[in-house]
Amino acid sequence: MYLRTEILKDNSRDHIIHLTDWIGGNASRVDQLIGLFLRDEYRVVQRAAWIISYVAQEHPELIAPHLPAMVQRMEDAGIPVAVKRNVIRVLQFLPIPPDLHGPVMNHCFNFLADPEETIAVRAFSMTVLAHLAMEYPDIKQELRLILEDQLAQKNSPGFTSRAKKVLKLL
To answer: Is the pTM of the predicted complex or chain greater than 0.85?
Structure first.
């Protein structure tokens, strides 16, 4: 199977799950997927990001070596929201290497504080920051202030619920 061609065939959840199953625990297929995610055109990157989020849940050990490149991808101007959403989603479930803590915290704080950012990216960011706050207690106050400010504004019920849960952890 040529993964890029298959990714472009269909954007349904069933097809994405089919591709995720095909990739399975195969490291070379994961490498191919990450290559598409990092270097291809918008539609391919968007769909590859979705597949990566599923593969990360089933085989986190295969995604972990690619985290530095994925976090670096977040530096690119104009990245698709699907990339941000799925990279941050993955970071919720995987241990983040210490050398990535600083860049990840910066991205997550920027996403969380940006009222124009999508709710999913902001919600995933607060969860990643809550996990990192256990290791870096100094960020708890900043996270608390941002969340309290966000809660004072009108937000979706899902965002509000997650923010309240994260505040209880802090």
So the answer is: yes
